[in-house]
Amino acid sequence: MPLLVMKFGGTSVGDLDRIANAAAKVKREVERGYDVIVIVSAMSGKTNELVGWVEKTSPLYDAREYDAVVSSGENITAGLMALRLQEMDVPARSWQGWQVPINTTSAHGSARFLSIPRANIDQKFAEGMKVAVVAGFQGLSPEGRITTLGRGGSDTTAVAFAAAFEAERCDIYTDVDGIYTTDPRVSSKARKLDKIAFEEMLELASLGAKVLQTRSVELAMRYNVRLRVLSSFEDTDETSGTLVCAEEEIMESKAVSGIAFSREEAKITLFTIEDRPGIATAIFGPLAEAGVNVDMIVQNISEKDYDEHHAGAVTDMTFSCPINQVARAEKALEDAKAAGKIRYDELIIDTDVAKVSVVGIGMRSHAGVAAKMFNALAAENINIKVITTSEIKISVLIDRKYMELAVQALHDAFGLDKA
Ligand code: ADP
Ligand code: ASP
Ligand code: MG
């Protein structure tokens, strides 16, 4: 029997009517002859509420109990979805992660899959069950504790099941009708793409586009899962939405295919550090140990400084990290300074920045993308604080108040509104 994975995000299961709407979509696929594995998120807002309860109860919480609490939203929707399908005469049952079992590492809050044994679910399909409804976002650690996969993790559950069960396709149903050139909530000129390459989606996701969790794209790429994003609120068929696929399947290759942004950035500068071999590792070693995800880095050109503190050449180092890791970063640097491992005159923290990135596999063959990007930002009088590039992306850090303006200006400059 051919098998499909259908994932419904939070808004798509936000209330009982929406669960019924999603169930009707599932039933349609069963009638077309598919066995279906449905992956559900928690009702929209539920996970945030649960996270809030945990943080209020215990600010420095035990990550195992955090996972026990925040995974529970998905349990409710899995059960309700199975009940709704049964009411529609579709043989269905629900599974929580531990019942499958979805085996993961014990990295609570950001666990990774180890294995998804098929036997349990396969046996039920063999007995006539048509739909397995699985709670997304959660798993089971080797120690027998409940884990979660990081925010947005149900996308990754869906792709992992599609790979494990060799599904014909993995359909991600959400509140937009596909993947756009940028977030349609930020630019009204955003254009829906028919196809996007795995590499591009991977970059867009990791640079802030929340439409798919980064890990889900990584897994889809590794296991060659046909991954599609489409609307749960519109009538859909095999041609709807956006297909995430191998580069070879895509004809057009503009220099830039999409723009991503992230509001949750902070910039930290260490002023007047020694410029000597080993200084970068002395700074970034303690940050890594403290679990700070350093992103962009710039080191200034060294200058000679003859003040009483610094005998040799000095420079400044700037880096960016997620805004919610600033306190941890600050403490790690201050501790390293107190222990005599690094020296700096001043630590300047800027929490009013955002990162805007242009992404495209076409960059490999088009010259002048950076110049065009900087030109478009200059025309809007937007100052660039940090720049990083890779083969298929260019990112800049700018004042957060200009973020929307920057996205729109770049969208225009690269002609993304036109096919
Ligand atoms: P779900 O709850 O279904 O998982 P998410 O909120 O996680 O949905 O992801 C869908 C949202 O992603 C959209 O509502 C949209 O605002 C946002 N988004 C960001 N970038 C893009 C993009 N390039 N294309 C489409 N949606 C995007
Ligand atoms: N409910 C989880 C979250 O809000 C997982 C998901 O929806 O993908 O992050
Ligand atoms: Mg999501």
UniProtKB/TrEMBL annotation:
- Mind telling me which PANTHER family this protein's record contains? ASPARTATE KINASE, ASPARTOKINASE
Q: Which residues bind ATP?
A: K7, F8, G9, G10, T174, D175, Y180, R185, K210, V211
Where is the ACT domain positioned along the sequence?
Answer: 268-361
EC annotation? Answer: 2.7.2.4
Q: Which NCBIfam families match?
A: asp_kin_monofn (TIGR00656), asp_kinases (TIGR00657), PRK06635.1-2 (NF005154), PRK06635.1-4 (NF005155)
Instruction: Supply the name of the protein.
Output: Aspartokinase
- Family per UniProt? Belongs to the aspartokinase family.
| Gene Ontology cellular-component annotations | cytosol
**EC class name:** transferase
Pathway membership, UniProt: Amino-acid biosynthesis; L-methionine biosynthesis via de novo pathway; L-homoserine from L-aspartate: step 1/3; Amino-acid biosynthesis; L-threonine biosynthesis; L-threonine from L-aspartate: step 1/5; Amino-acid biosynthesis; L-lysine biosynthesis via DAP pathway; (S)-tetrahydrodipicolinate from L-aspartate: step 1/4
List the SUPFAM superfamilies: ACT-like (SSF55021), Carbamate kinase-like (SSF53633)
Q: Which UniProt keywords apply?
A: Amino-acid biosynthesis, ATP-binding, Kinase, Lysine biosynthesis, Nucleotide-binding, Transferase
User: Which BP terms from GO are recorded?
Assistant: homoserine biosynthetic process; lysine biosynthetic process via diaminopimelate; threonine biosynthetic process
InterPro entries (UniProt xref): AceGlu_kinase-like_sf, ACT-like_dom_sf, ACT_Aspartokinase, ACT_dom, AKii-LysC-BS, Asp/Glu/Uridylate_kinase, Asp_kin_monofn, Asp_kinase
